[in-house]
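Have a think about this chain, tokens included, and walk me through the fold.
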Amino acid sequence: MLYRMAVNWIGSLVSINCGETLGVYQGKISAVDQTSQTISLTQPFRNGVKCSVPELTFSAIDIKDLKILDIPHTQINTGLVQPSVFASTSLPHSTYSSPNGASKGIKKLNTSGSAPQTIPRRAELKVQDLVTSPQQHSKSYVDRHIDSALTPSKAFRRRHNSWSSSSKIPNQATPKKNGVKNGPMKSKDDECFGDGIEVILDTDFDFEGNLALFDKAAVFEEIDTFERRNGTRSRGTPNEKPARYRHDENILESEPIVYRQITVPQHSGKEYCTDSGLVVPSISYDLHKKLLATAERHGLSLERRLEMAGVCASQMTLTLLGGPNRLNPKNVHQRPTVALLCGPHVKGAQGISCGRHLANHQVQVILFLPNFVKMLECITTELQLFSKTESKQVASVKDLPDTPVDLVINCLDCHENPFLREQPWYRAAVEWANQNRAPVLSIDPPVGELEHVIDAKWSLAVGLPLPLGESAGRVYLCDIGIPKKVFQEVGISYHSPFGCKFVIPLHCA
């Protein structure tokens, strides 16, 4: 059927659009070869200029669009192809549409009173009507199979005849001004819309039966086989989804991550891990004391250590107080208040250093430190610097605020002086902290029996953590600048877990 339909168009004048590079060609169809998928034109014109060769052959791959300009009357088979567009002259005319809405005819009014003139007819035809290539046009191949299975020719003709008999619009031609009868125009209607329109069929079109003739699975399997063979996929998505990465993930392949990068000579019974999964083991108090003494011997003096601990502790405290949402020039009336409880030892000096940095960041700090006849030199130095701020220092618990403060920083305990717990000022400070409803942050808290006095919500360890208990709350670790070789000297294989930060949270492993 396709071959007969293609042969019927031989001798027609066509216009072939081959794209911007090759141009537009006009000529008469001389041959159609379905085997090689080609169309030949005689007397060709390219972009309006006559070609020097008498005949040109076009491949279906190069043809972008094809239009029929003129069709010989002797070769029209209305049962196969129906023209869709007809030419008209500049004379007055009226238009009407066929019932299916697909073809439009133009009736020219003859003002001279003579018989209607013969109107040269044009038709638009797709390339697939002349040359079909299922392997080159997968989608068109499927559409033709569906159309062949679903074309309701009989049902359409029956409904068209019923509609035309009730409305009488297609069969009644517009009366001519010169009195010409409807007979000549009716013959042109029959020529336009094809034969068999008046035939009434008694049987309806079997949609389900014709649809069953179309093997959809086999067609799509053939298309997929062709696409896999040629390395193209014209429909659907790839079988494998591309991998998606977060903003903090590396898309380049790298060596496997070693999560245990810190090893200690003796296991202390507890391990922590960072947010990235690195294991941070805890160390005993004796090893921790030896580590700090070795670092001090190599140049990390006590003053440097106190300053680093104070900076890290104040940075963590500012974050707990609200960070930039709480501490900005627009919130001067909401300055946070921090109560700092310190004892007369090195850990107390770390708390005083933290209080000085907090005061420099517009935090109201109230320092509690009992009076002693003789203070450590580091405490005296830190107190001199702290006194230069606008913060308040008290020696009695009675001078501490009666209302809850924003945060309580606990630096009362140490391993060197456990007898301080028996002092009245110590007991009064612990009682005040437990009665105040403010959360507690412990800086470098001790381990063992000394850690169960004040329950903390957060604890900040220095260098490497001690095996803290549940009363320490959530544990954080701060970097005070101990070099890697200092760790190696005390028998610790160390690789920094801090990354880009100086204070990181730890989780129980």
User: Anything to note?
Assistant: The radius of gyration is 48 Å. The chain has 14 helices and 21 strands. Residues 18 and 75 are 26 Å apart (CA to CA).
